[in-house]
Specification:
The structure holds 3 protein chains of 3 kinds.
Chain A: H1 2-12, E1 24-33, H2 38-45, E2 56-63, H3 65-68, E3 82-89, H4 92-98, E4 107-108, E5 114-118, H5 119-124, H6 127-130, H7 132-136, E6 145-149, H8 166-174, H9 189-198, E7 202-210, E8 213-223, E9 228-233, H10 235-245, E10 251-256, E11 263-280, E12 283-299, H11 309-338, H12 345-352, H13 354-360, H14 364-370, E13 373-383
Parallel strand pairs in A: 1-4, 1-5, 5-6, 6-7, 12-13
Antiparallel strand pairs in A: 1-2, 2-3, 7-8, 8-9, 10-11, 11-12
Helix pairs in contact in A: 10-11, 12-13
Chain B: H1 5-16, E1 22-28, E2 35-41, H2 47-61, H3 69-76, E3 82-85, H4 88-95, E4 100-104, E5 110-113, H5 143-152, E6 159-166, E7 172-179, H6 185-196, H7 206-213, E8 225-227, H8 230-239, E9 242-246, E10 252-255, H9 267-270, H10 273-302, H11 310-320, H12 327-347, H13 353-370, H14 376-390, H15 395-433, E11 435-436, E12 439-440
Antiparallel strand pairs in B: 1-2, 2-4, 3-5, 4-5, 6-7, 7-9, 8-10, 9-10, 11-12
Helix pairs in contact in B: 10-14, 10-15, 12-13, 12-14, 12-15
Chain C: H1 11-22, H2 26-38, H3 43-65, H4 73-81, H5 83-116, H6 122-137, H7 140-166, H8 184-196, H9 203-206, H10 216-248, H11 253-259, H12 272-302, H13 306-321, H14 327-359, H15 365-368
Classes of the chains: A alpha/beta, B alpha+beta, C mainly alpha.
Chain lengths: 390, 481, 369
């Protein structure tokens, strides 16, 4: 018994064991249309290669562990905190396993945090196909966040700095959601799974990059029925969408004073948006009530203007008007141009009138574009910050 | 048996030829000039007493012409304890315990006079169980002193002490103490039965008794609690437990033991209930930490890199780059090193011990990291484990946990987290199956007894602890004023 | 004789054993199986109905056992149906318990292989597990009861914490509308949810060990309520976070919920290890109890020592666990067990109860004389 236990123990040593330092953890992944890197081309010239269609290039970002700790021991200060490697092919899984032939430490996906998909690829390929591997894999967690990039996706995972890890940077920016309406709440694989399976349309944050810097810029619209990218919302339209769907956690709205045309910057402290589906005589209409409360943090109006009821009313009206403009332009784009519902109108209809929803569900995006939407906005100003005039 | 002194002495001499410490002093009794001799053991018998109460009275003060046994015991010898015997062998046996034999020519009876010199250590604070607050008394090596300490605790007629003899060759006194009107008589009888069954020639320490009466010798957990503190024994007796005291050792044994007792300290009761509870929670946490940390380290490092936070994983990877060993070997090296250090610190003279522990730990840890043999994270893990294991008030439990820790490490190395879970289950199963003198070892945790939980992980205010632990099936259920 | 029930357990312990036996493999898959059947977010209502059905079935079994104080199902079934039919039913019940036991370890092996120990052969995973279980069952019902009493609070505590962290993903819209498609979808799901409560039939066996069998009904109600609560919370949290459409495609939706949450700043950013820990413990308890019930059945039918069967049945269960060829087969096995349990412990006790009443077995007359 004891001997068998001992043998078992010796045997098991090589079953599932893989010391952490013998692995490479990748934290970010970028999917581009097929374009081989220099290294790859060189390797292929030497004879490396296998049967594949070169439809996708994907880049994974591996943490450079030598850079991580042991401060005084690191020899190369200029060394970057990450390593990006690329591979081209038509199966993500195959490409990942291909790295086993190129690196001494196999890559593991437990810590994958961000997935960036290039716009062109998203227009050509279905999202559910592109993401199928990630949802199936037992290492990759559904908490990974998905982005779309108008630029080359692998560029969003690059930086000039030696301390920044680009994948963490992208993730970190999503945390700033409470400061800007231009940042969506991160769309994780877990949330996508339901939407993709239900054939719902959705938006994904768009990331652009230049010279190792990145910026969140609007959002990409993915149509539910085709699972393909059909267009973008620019930054303003994204703000409108955030206001419309009530997703925003807070942020800033810039309005202009009615008479003077001076800047008034309004900080939203609380945003509430309620979509009501109304069914009358078999006809569906939507009513949206948006309510914001906040404070004025910056205003350039001349100081002779007194802050009183009237001024507050005026300012509130200005803010309201600005919000209305934002929301309407977004709505127009969604209903007229893209003919997709990404603001959750369908959800409300499903919840409030499940019987009406059921027959419309199949072709919802089309139906939605025909449904009239009325919008009511209330903006309240509670204070004017630390400056008090007169 | 005839009364000739010289022939008797001859016999005694024949036997005591092997006993160099046995002295024979011949003299003649005043008045009658009858020859007599005393036999005593050097160092064991109280020479002052022999001089004052035996030799002086016999050689100076005796007026009677005829000496008989009853005259000696009734009129002459001013000693409290005298027994009469006719056996030479018994004389020798008694002499070797410190008593003095008196042989008188022509008298068939021989007197054995109680002159034992009790050289006992004074009552000091116990070293192995130091407390911040609590009585500064500890048991010593003399049984009568120890029983007196228990008696002195308070007037209590129900404190029963049953004396027994143990040891086939070197026979020793052993006392079973319990509260007559509290302790469950089944438990008392069981203790008596097991003690009477002890079949061994010699018992140098109560640890022998412990090992001979415990329920399961294969278990890593102590099923008998040993303590040097009379207050602890009294508290246990008052709960309905039974104490066993052995002559010649300051360590008393308490049975039955339950798992929760092992992590309790008398101080929990002396401090106010909040701090007492908090310390107890801390100790439970420390026990878990010292048991599982290294195995969890191994399983996460070697099996589940996906289950640790990303940033932690990155920094661990960075520190482990270049470490040539697998996490198990690495952890074993450091754990064994620290165990050796601890053992060495224990054996060294007191002033050097702790210093050497610290220095050794620091230097070895630092050097091992510098040399790239182990990773700094592991040094932290090992240090935390070691420190946690020192918070456990009972030495024997600490050892048990340390042993189990190594088993847990092997389980982790074979099956990762799954192995650790199975190890934990195995341990729970073992504890659940274990009994100490009929009382489930896992109580009061299971079976659920809400009343007993008041004194488990938390120590509730004394006013709320009105009842004695139910698990001990006490005769008197209520702690009266 | 060794096969007779000597040990006694309290009514709390009975409830705990029942709860632990019911909680098992289902907790990881229930949200999916329910959502598949209902197609609406109303699965949690199905769970409640299923739970009440389980309680009702449990109570019927208690009534059935009442006239036979201190006897297990195997011992008194013969008195109701006659010896031969009784033995046949007992054999089927034994087979059923073996089936559950092997199903549980097989699911354990699958999950362990997928999430914890990729590459470790499943026989090794199963074997060590069975050893640890064997160590427990040799301790008898008392040891089992006490261990379960340790496991259950840990399970509830960890479960509450883990689901509490999942609340960041929770969106009540995913659970609305309530009964939007009417009651039919809910009723469709009831069978599935009732099946996840399999394990309540353990009352047929453990009632014989109870100190005070008259409290058995209470124990059944309490014992079923605990898994009922846990299942409701699971379904509500998982469907509420991942939405019905997101759940139906996931193999292990509950694990996915926990894996979708990351909370930075805590020592543990990831919580699936905790969920897996309590889940493995629950599998362990279900396996141990059903295994014990099966061995006890054989021992009581043959009037031989229990220990022999405890050792002898291990390879059988091991082989049975290896029958399904793939994961789909495992789930089919689960469905089969569920259906079997519906007939065996949903319908049959009613029938037996009727026969028993007709034959005039009256309350507690037998052992009290």
């Amino acid at each position: 018994m004891l001997i068998s236990a001992a043998i078992l123990f010796l045997q098991t040593g090589c079953w599932s064991k893989d010391e952490i330092e013998d692995l490479s953890i990748y934290i970010g992944m970028a999917l581009d249309i097929g374009e081989q890197s220099k290294v790859e081309k060189e390797l292929e010239k030497q004879g490396a290669g296998y049967a594949r269609k070169k439809t996708m290039t994907f880049t994974i970002q591996i943490i450079n562990e030598l850079k991580g700790g042991k401060g005084e021991k690191t020899p190369a200060a200029e060394q970057k905190a990450y390593i990006n490697v690329s591979e081209t092919g038509d199966s993500i899984f195959e490409m990942i396993r291909e790295f086993s032939t190129r690196m001494e430490r196999p890559v593991i996906g437990h810590h994958l945090k961000v997935i960036v998909v290039n716009e062109k690829l998203a227009r050509r390929k279905r999202m559910d196909q592109l993401l199928d591997f990630f949802l199936r894999d037992n290492d990759i967690r559904p908490s990974a966040v998905v982005f779309i990039s108008k630029s080359k996706a692998s560029h969003t995972l690059e930086t000039q700095s030696s301390t920044v890890v680009p994948a963490f940077r992208l993730l970190g920016i999503t945390d700033n959601q409470y400061r800007s309406l231009k940042i969506m709440s991160p769309v994780t694989l877990a949330k996508l799974e339901g939407k993709m399976h239900a054939g719902m349309s959705y938006v994904l944050q768009n990331v652009v990059s230049a010279k190792g810097e990145v910026a969140f810029s609007g959002a990409a619209v993915i149509k539910g029925s085709s699972q393909k990218l059909i267009g973008f919302l620019n930054e303003k339209e994204l703000v409108g969408l955030m206001l419309l769907s009530g997703q925003g956690k807070g942020g800033q709205i810039k309005a202009y004073h009615e008479e003077r045309g001076e800047v008034i910057s309004y900080e939203i402290k609380k945003l509430e948006s309620k979509i009501n589906a109304i069914v009358k005589n078999g006809k569906v209409t939507f009513e949206v009530e948006i309510e914001t409360t906040g404070r004025v943090m910056e205003e350039w109006t001349p100081s002779e203007l007194e802050i009183n009821e009237a001024f507050t009313k005026q300012t509130e009206a200005a803010v309201k008007e600005e919000i209305e403009k934002l929301v309407l332009s977004t709505l127009a784009k969604l209903q007229d141009k893209y003919k997709t519902d990404v603001a959750g109108f369908g959800q409300r209809l499903r919840i409030q009138h499940p019987k009406v929803w059921e027959p419309m569900k199949k072709d919802w995006d089309e139906e939605f574009s025909q449904i009239p939407v009325t919008i009511h906005i209330k903006s309240k100003i509670t204070e004017y910050g630390a400056t008090s005039r007169r | 048996m005839y009364g000739s002194l010289s022939s008797n002495l001859q016999k005694v001499r024949a036997i005591t030829a092997r006993h160099s410490d046995v002295n024979i002093r011949e003299f003649s009794i005043a008045g009658s000039s009858v020859g007599a001799a005393i036999i005593y053991a050097d160092g064991l018998a109280d020479k002052d007493m022999i001089d004052q109460h035996i030799l002086k009275v016999l050689m100076n003060d005796v007026g009677e012409e005829t000496i008989t046994c009853s005259i000696l015991t009734n009129k002459v010898l001013t000693v409290s304890q005298i027994t009469i015997t006719h056996e030479i062998e018994e004389i020798i046996r008694k002499v070797l315990t410190g008593q003095t034999a008196l042989l008188v020519d022509g008298m068939s009876e021989m007197l054995i006079i109680g002159t034992m010199l009790s050289k006992s250590r004074s009552i000091e604070e116990p070293i192995s169980e130091a407390l911040v607050r609590g009585p500064r008394t500890g048991f010593n090596e003399t049984l009568s002193d120890n029983t007196a300490l228990l008696r002195r605790h308070g007037e209590n007629a129900s404190l029963s002490m049953i004396a027994m003899k143990v040891g086939k060759r070197a026979s020793k006194d052993l006392i079973i103490a319990y509260m007559e009107d509290i302790a469950d008589s089944d438990i008392v009888e069981e203790v008596k039965r097991r003690v009477s069954k002890i079949d061994i020639d010699n018992l140098p320490e109560s640890g022998y008794v412990e090992q001979l009466i415990e329920d399961n010798f294969l278990s890593p957990f102590p099923q008998v609690q040993s303590t040097e503190r009379p207050d602890r024994v009294i508290a246990a007796l008052m709960e309905g437990r039974v104490a066993i005291l052995l002559d010649g050792t300051p360590f008393a044994l308490i049975v039955p033991v339950t798992f929760s007792m092992l992590l309790q300290s008398p101080e929990d009761y002396y401090e106010r209930w909040m701090s007492g509870s908090l310390l107890r929670v801390l100790r439970f946490a420390a026990a878990l930490i010292s048991l599982l940390t290294p195995s969890l380290y191994i399983s996460f490092i070697s099996f589940h890199p996906g289950l640790i936070p990303t940033k932690l994983a990155v920094s661990i990877m960075a520190t482990r780059v270049g470490v040539p060993f697998s996490s198990l070997v690495e952890a074993l090296i450091m754990e064994i090193a620290i165990e050796i250090l601890r053992e060495a610190g224990l054996r060294l003279p007191k002033p050097i011990g702790p210093a050497m522990g610290i220095v050794g730990g620091l230097i070895i840890g630092e050097a091992a990291v510098q040399a790239g043999i182990v990773s700094p994270i592991l040094v932290i893990v090992v240090a935390v484990t070691a420190i946690s294991s020192f918070t456990i008030p009972q030495y024997s439990v600490g050892i048990a946990l340390r042993m189990l820790r190594f088993i847990a490490m092997f389980c982790a190395a074979a099956f990762g987290l799954y192995g650790v879970i199975l190890f934990f289950l195995m341990l729970c199963v073992h504890v659940v199956k274990l009994k100490s003198f009929g009382v489930p070892y896992a109580s009061p945790a299971v079976p659920y007894r809400l009343n007993d939980w008041k004194d488990f992980i938390l120590r509730m205010p004394l006013t709320m602890m009105k009842r004695r632990p139910k698990m001990l099936k006490t005769k008197d259920k209520v702690r009266k004023g | 004789m060794a096969y007779q029930a000597k040990d006694r357990i309290t009514s709390i312990q009975t409830a705990v054993i029942l709860a632990n036996t019911m909680l098992g493999a289902g907790i990881l898959t229930l949200p999916r199986t329910v959502a598949e059947k209902t197609g609406t977010p109303d699965g949690w209502i199905s769970v409640i109905i299923g739970g009440f059905l389980a309680i009702a079935a449990g109570l019927i079994m208690v009534m059935l056992s009442k006239p036979f104080r201190g006897k297990t199902f195997y011992e008194y079934i013969g008195q109701i149906t006659g010896k031969w039919l009784g033995s046949l039913i007992s054999l089927i019940v034994v087979g059923y318990f073996c089936l559950i036991a092997s199903f549980e370890i097989r699911v354990l092996a699958e999950v362990a292989d997928f999430f914890l120990l990729e590459g470790t052969p499943s026989w090794a995973i199963i074997m060590v597990f069975m050893w640890v279980s064997l160590y427990l069952v040799t301790g008898g019902i008392n040891a089992i009861a006490r261990l379960f009493e340790i496991i259950l609070p840990i399970t509830i505590f960890v479960f509450v914490i883990v689901t509490f962290f999942g609340i960041t993903l929770f969106d009540v819209d995913n659970l609305r509308p309530v009964l939007g498609q009417g009651v039919m979808p809910v009723l469709n799901g009831v069978k599935t949810t009732a099946i996840t409560f399999t394990g309540f039939e353990a009352i047929l066996i453990i009632i014989a060990f109870m100190h005070r069998p008259e409290k058995a009904s209470k124990a059944v109600i309490v014992g079923t309520s605990i898994p009922l609560m846990i299942y409701i919370i699971t379904v509500v949290m998982v469907i509420g976070s991942l939405s019905v459409d997101g759940v139906v495609t996931r193999t292990w939706p509950t694990l996915d919920l926990v894996r979708s949450v990351e909370i930075e700043g805590l020592i543990f950013e990831r919580f699936e290890s905790f969920l897996l820990v309590i889940w493995i413990m629950q599998i362990y308890s279900t396996f141990t109890m059903t295994y014990y019930a099966a061995s006890l059945g054989l021992s009581q039918m043959s009037k031989r020592n229990l220990n022999g069967f405890l050792y002898g049945l291990l390879p059988v269960v091991f082989l049975m666990a290896n029958i399904p060829k793939n994961l789909a087969g495992v789930f089919r096995m689960g469905d089969f067990i569920g259906n079997l349990s519906l007939y065996l412990f949903g319908a049959m006790p009613l029938l037996l109860l009727a026969i028993s009443k007709l034959r005039g077995h009256k309350g507690e007359g037998i052992s009290r004389k």
